Amino acid sequence: MAHVHSLKVRYAECDMQGHAFNSHYLTWFDVAHTEMIRAVFGRYEDIVAAGVEFVVAEANVRYRAPARFDEDIDIHVLPREPGETSLTTDFEVRRGEDLLAEGWIRHVCVDATTFAKTPWPDELRSAFGEVSGTA
Amino acid sequence: MAHVHSLKVRYAECDMQGHAFNSHYLTWFDVAHTEMIRAVFGRYEDIVAAGVEFVVAEANVRYRAPARFDEDIDIHVLPREPGETSLTTDFEVRRGEDLLAEGWIRHVCVDATTFAKTPWPDELRSAFGEVSGTA
Amino acid sequence: MAHVHSLKVRYAECDMQGHAFNSHYLTWFDVAHTEMIRAVFGRYEDIVAAGVEFVVAEANVRYRAPARFDEDIDIHVLPREPGETSLTTDFEVRRGEDLLAEGWIRHVCVDATTFAKTPWPDELRSAFGEVSGTA
Amino acid sequence: MAHVHSLKVRYAECDMQGHAFNSHYLTWFDVAHTEMIRAVFGRYEDIVAAGVEFVVAEANVRYRAPARFDEDIDIHVLPREPGETSLTTDFEVRRGEDLLAEGWIRHVCVDATTFAKTPWPDELRSAFGEVSGTA
After folding, report:
1. With a threshold of 0.90, does the pTM exceed it?
2. CA C7 to CA C34: how far, in whole Å?
3. Which of B21, B99, C41, C93 qualifies as a cystine partner to C100, CB 3.0-4.6 A?
4. With 0-12 CB in 10 A as exposed, 13-18 as middle and 19+ as buried, what is C40?
């Protein structure tokens, strides 16, 4: 089951069309991803301290309806089955029942010092499975 | 042939990993798209004044190597053949010969007042063709 | 008594020094100001719908200690006695008992259509007093 | 004489009022400050590599008239006489002859490793004087 993170659209995030500007959805995905990690594993800094980092390899967002200033939105976060060194996570942006946007981010696990690709630590791998219900 | 817009990575755009944060690439794509439009047609505000706006329907970025603070990067912008109301534009982020990222944005043409989908005006359609070399 | 709005520092807000970049404090002040207005009056959009807007005339931030990624911070918001058309609001950024930054923003009340200076509506004026305890 | 850095206001920087949002001025000041340093001394990274960093201790902006999307603006940067460990720099944002905003940033020189206050290196101190004409 997806982890859900709620936030309120900031005035500074909205453009002259009165809509949240498209790039901010990726920032929201990042915030919600951090909270998903916290819910099943712990703080992102503890992962870094343990020697690995997440790097974004690819991102996709499909915008279906605008999010507007001051609206309360829910970001649903659902990791797929992780690969050896990669993990694709699906996101939905909802306002109540309405789907405003959906997308995904493919992260790669890298060594926190060398930034070379490295396999996901077992504890992280099983934490992802805990959210997605595959663990 | 792609339109090229150059910019320098800002300190405020770089994160604790020392890399430009992923969401800023979409802002760069937007800046470069505005410049492509200017090169073949004119100012974005004149398009709005003429009654239509661009809305982002989908965006994709594939990050290949990090862009760092103070680096000079080139954003290559190449519109594909436009549809009736949509236009997909390809982007490449290059530092010299190195490809740092590539992606695309699918815009939809909307009425500037009602935000309802509307066909691309002929002048815009032929301007896109001028960049892509299909006009 | 100050209105307090809590938020968590986003990864995208932190720079290569590992600190929240200085410009984001003004965005946080804006978010917290919106929440202060909501607490004593209502939604910012309802103010705009009623015919006036807030415009920022001057801003000041004194940075005392860095805010870092993932930290929970509290923004304290305390409007001073409003002038005819202006209002200065004091802000403090605290992490628990620690004062990380303090500052103020001077807003001006403008007509939502012409953007000309206009006196604060009485309901807003008394709402500000309600927060500051001068009403 | 002030160092001048020119930039074009980005769509993503403009809010629902059609104006550049107030926090972005601090990002522009930072960009222009980096260019001033480059003009008289060299790259900011070389300063860090040499062992010191700039930290922002206080910032002030007075907004006089809005900057709008796609406008070409000039940021004028003029350092004052540096203190032992601090430096206040004045900024003006101009569109042609029009003054849109003015402000200042007080930086403190810190050790790049410990982030403890440290005196400005002599080469930087004389570089500041070169811009301000006091050297």
Report:
1. yes
2. 13
3. C93
4. middle
In a 10 Å sphere around its CB, with 0-12 CB exposed, 13-18 middle and 19+ buried, how is residue D133 labelled?
exposed
CB A29 within 8 A of CB A75: yes
Beta strands in A20-128 (DSSP E): 52-63, 72-79, 86-95, 98-111
**Which chains have 3 or more CB–CB distances shorter than 8 Å to chain C?**
A, B, D
Laid out side by side, the sheet with D52-63 consists of C3-8, C72-79, C86-95, C98-111, C52-63, D52-63, D98-111, D86-95, D72-79, D3-8
Flag whether the ipTM exceeds 0.90. Answer: yes
Q: How far apart are CA C21 and CA D125, in angstroms?
A: 24
Q: Which domains does chain B have, with CATH numbers?
A: 3-132 (3.10.129.10)
pLDDT tens digits for range D100-116: 999 999 999 999 999 99
Q: Which residue has the tokens 């190597």?
A: B65
Can you list the positions of beta strands (E) in B67-124? Answer: 72-79, 86-95, 98-111
- Give CA B84 to chain center in angstroms: 19
Q: Are B115 and B55 within 8 A, CB to CB?
A: yes
Closest CA to C89 of C132, C39, C120, C55: C132
The distance of D53 to chain C (nearest Cα, Å) reads: 9
Window B:17-46, CB contacts with A under 8 Å:
17, 21-27, 30
- Beta strand C3-8 with C52-63 is unpaired
Rounded to a whole number, what is the distance in Å from the CA of A7 to chain C's nearest CA? 10
Give the Å distances, CA to CA, from C15 to B17, B18, B69, D66: 9, 8, 10, 27
Phi-psi region of D3 (alpha: psi -120 to 50; beta: other; left: phi over 0): beta
Of A25, A17, B88, the residue nearest A7 (C-alpha): A25
Read off the tokens for A87: 């993990």
